């Protein structure tokens, strides 16, 4: 199975509807997607209604815990934002889902950092398509904890979908738990122009985004 992991749609801050994301992924020949809109499972639920036969949609959400973002994989109910990382992971497990720490040491975006060492996460996203600078090497930290690793594009557009993919056999949940997920990356010659295009789109209001960036740097200092 070749799947896009960590995907956003217009149900949060993505630029394409769930159906548009499904259509784009199917056109690329992918076998499925894991949709994780911010604090909402609606993107995945809607995509399940609009996908071709045999195309895998795993519902989930990127939950805004008070300690940083956490991916709730394979859940069909929303998890309240603002809880601690520990409480959020407990909620995910209670719903039968997997808790993955995305971009844990990203310098700009909210990650849980060293909490991957104390909170019972199921895996760590050690490669993220939108991470440019890390405060610490996530792969090394994951290895120290013994946690399985996974890569995600963190797609917000259709043209980024296949920058970073995951490949596995059998059931994704089991593959994650057994650390059998392989991450596939496009070459820099493909990724960089797409990322520049994405950044130009995102930085339409540079002053506001710069203020946010400075605030987060001060908070992490």
Describe the model.
With 221 residues, the chain is α/β, with parallel strands linked by helices. It folds into two domains: 2-190, Metal-dependent hydrolases (TIM Barrel); 193-220. The protein has helices at 18-27, 42-49, 85-94, 138-145, 172-177, 188-202, 206-220; strands at 2-7, 32-38, 56-65, 68-73, 98-101, 123-128, 149-152, 164-167, 182-185. It is globular, with a radius of gyration of 16 Å. The protein has seven helices and nine strands. It is 33% helix and 23% strand.
Concise summary:
This protein has 221 residues and is α/β, with parallel strands linked by helices. The chain has helices spanning 18-27, 42-49, 85-94, 138-145, 172-177, 188-202, 206-220; strands at residues 2-7, 32-38, 56-65, 68-73, 98-101, 123-128, 149-152, 164-167, 182-185. The protein contains seven helices and nine strands, in the order E-H-E-H-E-E-H-E-E-H-E-E-H-E-H-H.
Looking at this protein, list some descriptive labels:
221 residues, alpha/beta, 23% strand, globular
């Amino acid at each position: 199975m070749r799947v896009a992991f960590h995907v956003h749609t217009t149900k949060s801050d993505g630029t394409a509807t769930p159906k548009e994301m499904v259509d784009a992924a199917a056109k690329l020949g992918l076998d499925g997607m894991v949709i994780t809109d911010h604090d909402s499972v609606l993107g995945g639920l809607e995509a399940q209604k609009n996908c071709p036969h045999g195309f895998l949609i795993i519902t989930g959400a990127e939950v805004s815990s008070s300690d940083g973002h956490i991916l709730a994989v394979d859940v069909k109910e929303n998890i309240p934002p603002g809880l601690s990382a520990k409480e959020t992971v407990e909620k995910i497990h209670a719903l039968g889902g997997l808790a993955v720490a995305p971009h844990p040491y990203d310098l700009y975006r909210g990650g849980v950092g060293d909490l991957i060492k104390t909170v019972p996460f199921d895996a760590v996203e050690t490669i993220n398509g939108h991470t440019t600078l890390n405060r610490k090497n996530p792969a090394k930290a994951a290895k120290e904890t013994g946690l399985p690793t996974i890569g995600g594009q963190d797609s917000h557009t259709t043209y980024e979908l296949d920058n970073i993919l995951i490949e596995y056999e059998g059931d994704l949940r089991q593959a994650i738990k057994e650390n059998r997920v392989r991450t596939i990356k496009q070459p820099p010659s493909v990724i960089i122009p797409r990322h520049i295009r994405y950044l130009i789109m995102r930085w339409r209001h540079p002053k506001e985004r710069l203020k946010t960036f400075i605030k987060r740097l001060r908070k992490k200092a």
